[in-house]
Amino acid sequence: MRQFTHEAIDSAEFDRQKALYSPFTQSVRELLDAAIRTQVDDDTIREAQLAIEAVTQRLRARQLEGAYGVRYTVDGRGQAWGNPVIGVRNAMAPPLMIHTDPDLRCWSEFELGAAYEGPPGHVHGGVSALVLDHILGEAASAGMTKPNFTGTISCRYLRGTPLGALRAEAYIDRVEGVKTFARGFISDADGHTVEAEGVFIRPVWARD
Amino acid sequence: MRQFTHEAIDSAEFDRQKALYSPFTQSVRELLDAAIRTQVDDDTIREAQLAIEAVTQRLRARQLEGAYGVRYTVDGRGQAWGNPVIGVRNAMAPPLMIHTDPDLRCWSEFELGAAYEGPPGHVHGGVSALVLDHILGEAASAGMTKPNFTGTISCRYLRGTPLGALRAEAYIDRVEGVKTFARGFISDADGHTVEAEGVFIRPVWARD
To answer: Matching SUPFAM superfamilies, A to Z (chains A, B) (predicted)?
Structure first.
């Protein structure tokens, strides 16, 4: 399994790749949504399947042996492009664009559609946990400059989170040694729907 | 937003649709994986994007207005096919096939590949939370015969969960009035990697 990648790229190459892969991944994301919602006849489904398999075969002609890993540009921009929450190359990711304020508070505004549904018309509780785990982790890691792994995470569901436009926020509550306590929430236009608290732990190899 | 669907189907139609959509969705799932891992040249990426957009356009010729919702066959088989964990029509779902033992313990064996990566070579912590929220919820709902919504869920990460073959289990720990307490874990060949506890609440409309 390929894990770490050492071929660091510069910022111009990062931008070039992002401009290529963002619309490509978006096309896969749209297909994923259409595959859930389509009501076309069976023959069209079968033809679509053959067309998709042909595209996949072309893409697999040359590919990474394992997963994408986490890469950094030579000037330190993170390239977690396979990531299921923020990944530029992962069609499962909404994707979240996470902003970090000067006080290190992280926030993101995003849309969740048909692919994220649990109860009818509402976000799957586990998808909310996925989003919150990620954004709390990013806040705890101070914008990904300090590696941290989730120790525990707890989510409290105040009410159903409707599919559609949402916001997530996270911030560091306190730091105790190698443990960082982060808090956050998901909200819709009417306020918080899910609140979370997480403990993130600095790995041994990254401690001072 | 389409939420509930009343057009109940019989068991034969359920099986027919499942046989049609399972391989179709699997083709989208493979494409999603290939899109993350491909190393083909830029022109091939652009051609693939056009081909994918053409398929999506055909599928969208006739589609549900909103998300898939949760349906049941006339004989009560659940059809949460848009679900991001178990959905037969959702390429984001691994998908988990969840088995329920006679004692109502739920378990599933599944594979997580490149699309679920957080730390290099390992499952995203939030994906583990997504899987656990779902399987604990299913255990708490006694095989989806009793509706329940997540009240709280807490996950404790014992060590990194490697991508690859995994198992998840969940069971009811105790019931107190409208609250069901469920526990579960994810494990690899070497034992538990993540443990979870959740409180699930019977909605008002489903109470006796």
So the answer is: Thioesterase/thiol ester dehydrase-isomerase
